[in-house]
Prior knowledge:
Distance between the termini: 43 Å
Largest sheet: 10 strands, antiparallel
Strand order of the largest sheet: 1-5-6-7-4-9-12-11-10-8
Number of domains: 2
CATH topology of the largest domain: Thiol Ester Dehydrase, Chain A
Amino acid sequence: MPIDVDVALNAELDPIEFSWVSSDIQLYHLGLGAGSDPMDPRELRYLVDDTPQVLPTFGNVAATFHMTKPPTVQFPGIDIELAKVLHASERVEVPGPLPASGSAKAVTRFTDIWDKGKAAVIWSETTVSAPDGTLLWTQRRSIFARGEGGFGGERGPSSSDGAPDRAPDLEVDVPILPQQALLYRLCGDRNPLHSDPEFAAAAGFPRPILHGLCTYGMTCKAITDALLDGDAGAVAAYGARFAGVAFPGETLKVGIWKENGRFVATVVAPSRENAVVLSGVELVPA
């Protein structure tokens, strides 16, 4: 079914109500590799009982954290096979530190649909509010739908990686545990691409790949730990584009630049000739 832009653009989905508890936060942070040094007080801040600090990237997964089935891509004016869809980008903005437990309502609408010729890029924005109406966070996401372009829409701007033309101000190595994808899948993404070797092989990969949102969250944590003294509450906004895959067991390198009061970064896999995993990474301090 082709995309019906007139129906899809600015369409608003039914609200989703959800809740989370501190053990969900702990599991999410463990899925990102927190606690690698169990004697480090900064690591333990992510994992203490009842009141762990919360990385803003939890907002990108909170509404689906307890899902056990693969997602569908069926919305007003949009009906796409999941196999055609690639996660393109994510961003989250928070007006203040996220609570370690709570309830919320998420409202999503489609803000832009770009025609890239042989593909479409679909943008959505989700606002998440507490029961009293207080805004908790805003999430912006884009997906790349192969074979869904050619409908005559606007092409949209071209993207750049946002990295300055100079050596990074800081580089951080981020090791991925061999079992990290098996742990992170408990955070609401049971796609067998991340756990089943045969499924991964059928998709063209030598072994299961790490979840893109896991790499995304690990990078936010790495920058926060390196430049914000591990204070998750000091992050006002964070986003990245998904440029490639990461594999459990390898070590990623995060190159970070300080630019106009924010941090921009690129993530590569040195063991694979510096293949780019995340580009256009941006963290805005509070």
